[in-house]
Specification:
Elements: H1 9-16, E1 23-27, E2 38-41, H2 51-58, E3 64-70, H3 73-76, H4 80-87, E4 92-96, H5 98-105, E5 110-113, E6 123-127
Parallel strand pairs: 1-5, 2-5, 3-4
Antiparallel strand pairs: 1-6, 3-6
Amino acid sequence: MKKTGIINRDVSALVAQMGHFDVLIISDAGFPIPRGVACVDLSLAAGRPTVDEVVAIVAQELEVERFHFADEAAEGFADRAAEIGALLPNAAARSTPHSEVKRLATEARGIIRTGDFRSYANVVLISGVVY
């Protein structure tokens, strides 16, 4: 039994498959999953786990070069860049129209769906390299 790091086998495998510039999306509960894109569904209950909780854990194992969040998020939580930036201090932030977030999903190596009910809570992670 794995005792440290990400213990969910599907999330751990997805993170291990990431290469430079690969896309991983941590999504809210209602995000549309494109056909053919791997989805690990972690939704447990309304609001649990949150996107931010999952980003915090994934960030312990994945080198993230940049992250995107929806422009529309500013309506619900104005400090979205700062909130996610605190979890990914070495990553550049990019505000992107939600339509572009959905387009990026079609290129994703995978999507981790959470139980987050906050509109536009989704975070697109672009993998970096550790050297």
